Recover the amino acids of this structure.
């Protein structure tokens, strides 16, 4: 139910399940389903599977009740070929952090869409 940092290289050593991409894809699927752009049991199943994957793989609730989103790539992009060359090695070498805003924002949007979906 979750996606890898380099989606098409799941089997490569060093690749990992990444939160921001998973949350963005989850939000997109759920919002599209809610709007009627996609339909059918396979989408319901995929959305539920991704929801559960996000909760199981990335979410940690602290003893104080704070919700943390783990395993977020701090930054990745293209440009400046000396550093951001688009290779597999580049994408898996970026720092993995907790609660980065691009991941948290997608998580919040996805959960809001899922609340509507689950009604």
């Amino acid at each position: 139910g979750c996606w890898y940092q380099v989606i098409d290289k799941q089997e490569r050593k060093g690749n990992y399940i990444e939160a921001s991409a998973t949350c963005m894809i989850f939000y997109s699927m759920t919002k599209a389903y809610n709007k009627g752009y996609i339909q059918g049991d396979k989408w319901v199943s995929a959305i539920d599977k991704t929801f559960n994957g996000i909760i199981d793989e990335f979410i940690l609730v602290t003893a104080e009740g704070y919700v943390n989103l783990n395993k977020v790539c701090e930054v990745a992009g293209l440009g400046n070929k000396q550093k951001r060359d688009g290779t597999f090695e580049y994408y898996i070498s970026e720092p993995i952090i907790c609660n980065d805003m691009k991941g948290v924002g997608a998580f919040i949007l996805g959960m809001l869409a899922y609340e509507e979906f689950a009604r």
